[in-house]
Amino acid sequence: MDVRVARLLSLVFEVDSRPGVTAGELADELGVSVRTIYRDVAALQAAGIPLYGEVGRAGGLRLVEGYRSRSAALRSDEAAALLAGVVPGVAEQLGLGADAERAARKVRSQSERGRDRPRSSSAPAIGVGEILVDPVGWYRSPDEVPHLTTVAEAIRTHSILSIVYRRWAEPFEVRRRVAPLGLVLKAGTWYVMARSRGQVRTYRVNQIVRARLLPTTFEPDPAFDLVAAWAAFVSSFRDRLRVVDAHVVMTRATRDWIRTEGDPVMIEALDRALTDDLRGGPDDSAERAVVLPYESIERATAELLRFGRGVEVLGPPELRASVAAAAADVAQRYATADGARH
User: Which of these, 65, 96, 197, 233, could form a disulfide with 91 (CB 3.0-4.6 Å)?
Assistant: First the structure.
């Protein structure tokens, strides 16, 4: 299950079992910020879950009275499908479209019965047509993931999956038998965490060339925690990435581009570098010095050159020299006005 979907389910269950729980308490228990809890509540309201907030000593988050007894009509697969549908197209991608639509009809019917419930002025009602979550960046198309439904079915049925996987190093295609444990949707890209050769490994679903369900099943590991496993993978990825610290000065336009289209590691590094300097103010100055992590001089050179005049590399010296050499080579190629190559 997508990490965010798992968190949304947990949020609903917590509010159901502890009416009046506060956003701060939920943030501490789920390991996210209070702002994230507010966004999740808004998304759940948009999906039709009748959550509301009350202020005061006896306030907090609650479900509309009677929703708990009526919500028993939702099967577990319908509940998961409904929450997966918070992100457009996810339920359909996972093969849960019919379950999501059936669940949505039930929730709409339930919500209409509780529509007269008074709401706090600090937590206004949000209609279904007022929130849209679009996880794909401006300059990229959604990933083609033709085998996503097969992977999702393997997870639901605890089936062994035979895959042919495309890698970035030789051999470029490998065959693996894996036991899929969970799916993660990260910045518009699907990943599957699966047990293979005695270890939990992470695969990008759009790099699966072929996938086939095998008749063999496996026993799920009750100790496996998808959220914790993904967090460990992200931490390991960042450790592998941070080999070269690029000290650069970049323009506001470049910073805005990174925030909009950069990968999550770069966005986090940029925000962390600017937090103390900005002291909560707007990031509106022409240039700022920041530190960005890269896994090699070569990768840093290629990535930073794309920004042209929007970035100046200050260090380390070998990176500045590498960027200068690459820029000189580009200048040499464009030295002639007519484009003729000599």
Answer: 96
170: left (phi over 0), alpha (psi -120 to 50) or beta: beta
- The whole-angstrom distance between residue 329's C-alpha and the CA centroid of its chain comes to 38
Residue 210: DSSP 8-state: E
342 residues of the chain, pLDDT tens digit each:
445 666 777 788 778 778 888 888 888 888 888 888 888 888 777 766 778 777 666 678 888 765 544 444 445 555 555 545 545 556 566 665 665 565 555 555 544 444 444 444 343 433 333 444 555 555 556 667 889 889 888 988 899 999 999 987 678 899 999 999 988 877 667 889 999 988 999 999 889 999 999 999 999 888 888 888 888 887 777 666 667 889 999 888 888 888 777 766 777 778 777 665 544 445 556 788 888 888 889 889 988 998 998 999 999 999 999 999 999 998 988 887 666 555
Q: Is 267 helix (H, G, I), strand (E, B) or coil?
A: helix
- As a whole number of Å, the end-to-end CA separation of the chain is 57
Report pTM.
0.48
Q: How far apart are CA 123 and CA 234, in angstroms?
A: 34
CB 261 within 8 A of CB 138: yes
Strand ranges in the chain using DSSP code E only, listed in sequence order: 51-54, 60-63, 159-166, 173-186, 189-196, 199-204, 208-217, 244-251, 287-294, 311-315
Plot region of 299 (φ>0 → left; ψ -120 to 50 → alpha; else → beta): alpha
Residues 182/1, Cβ–Cβ less than 8 Å: yes
* Alpha helix (H) residue ranges in 47-135: 67-71, 76-84, 90-93, 97-113
Sorted by sequence, the CB contacts under 8 Å of residue 303 that are 6+ apart come out as 294
